[in-house]
Each structure stands twice: as C-alpha cells, then as structure tokens.
UniProtKB/TrEMBL annotation:
It comes from the Eukaryota. GO terms for biological process: intracellular protein transport; vesicle-mediated transport. Signal peptide: none annotated. This is COPA/B second beta-propeller domain-containing protein. GO terms for cellular component: membrane coat. Residues 24-184 form the COPA/B second beta-propeller domain. GO terms for molecular function: structural molecule activity.
Amino acid sequence: MTMMPGFEIHQRKFDCSENYVFFQEKKSIRPTFSAERIFGGTVLAMCSNDFICFYNWAECRLIRRIDVNVKVSAFMRTSIGLIVVIASDTSFYILKYNRDVVASYLDSKTAVDEQGVEDAFELLHEMNERVRTGIWVGDCFIYNYSSWRLNYCVSGEVTTMSHLDRPMYLLGYLASQSKVYLIDKEFKTLVMRGDLDRANEVLPSIPKEHHNRGQELLVKQFLKLATIEVEGETKLQREVAEKS
C-alpha cells in the first residue's frame, strides 16, 4: 500500500488558498500562479511546477520564493534550529529557516519583492538523490528513494539503513519501539479497485498509531470508513461522514 508523505496537505490545483484556525477562515491568499501543491508546517508553502513560495501564517505575507520544482517539503525543529527539506525530481536540499531574520523584516513593514526576504533560508546541504518519501526524527532525516534504499541523513552525512526488496513508502517512526515502518502499494491498490474486504485484512498489520494515515487515502477516495474496521471513531471518519 502507498501513502503520500505526511506533510503534504493537498495535491490539486488551487486558485485561492484559505487559512483556517479552529475551522474559521483566518486569511485568504490569491496567488499569481497556479498552485499545484500546498505544504503545512512552521510556515505555509505553495508550489507551482517551477518554484515554491513560503508565507507566514499570521498575515500570509511572502517570506521567500525558491526556484526549484518541489515534490516534498517538511519542517522540523532540531538542535540547530528550524530546518526544512525541499525535495525535487533529482535532488533534495536541507535549509535552515532564519526565523528571527524573517520576523525582524516583517515587523519593519518593509515591502518585499517577488523573491521575498533574501536571508530567510540558509542552504546547509544538497544531496543528489531523489526522495520518494521522508520524515524527520529529531535531527535525523529518514528517507527512501528510487534505488530502493532506506537512508538517513544527519549533518549532511548519509547512511544506508536497509536495502529494500521492492518500492516502499515511509509510514512513520514509533519512538516507543525505535522502529521505522514502511508500506508498499498493496493497500492503495486494494482501495482503488474497491476490494475493501481485503483492505480490511491488510489494515491490522499497520500499527494503530498510524491508522489515520491509512484512512487519509480513503478520505481522498470519499469512501465511508465504516467499511474499514478501525477501533473507535476518528476525526477522519467524521469528516468522511459529513462528505457523504
């Protein structure tokens, strides 16, 4: 079965992006470009096919535009500050977010050009590997890529954890077990073809802590989660019920 990275919120074109706080609209952005993806995190990010733009949540003001075709973006608070990974088709970049620089610039009410605040990000590392899925665990970025390897990167040093026997996708990390969980395409294939009985058999093999990640796929397909036997009602179940 397959999962999109946990930090990707939407995967469709947007003409207008709305920022909600406690389900109440807070701000609205009307970008001058077709937004192909939106990422959450420390700041709001929207991508076209050619670049990514970062905005602050409070005022939805432009922080920085970076010219790269982004597939994955993820923030993490580490021992050296706020770090973001930006992954493209061919490489991934690890950048440090200079929060104080951005805050000072925005507080000054100085107008920014289409590129945003020049020193908002500092490039720390560039890796010539294509990330399939990735997660932050403390200062460590764990990812797998097209060569069927599970790697982790710390301070720019890459170490291979495992050679996979087939394409896999990172589901998450359980600190209580010190384990990284990966999944294949089986669950997605079963859901897409409507074989919910078989999907119901596969789901228990996933740790309960990650059941919501499996349910997200069903939300995207607008299926009723009552057909999948997950213990207890979840927020996602209620959301799907409202859509039905």
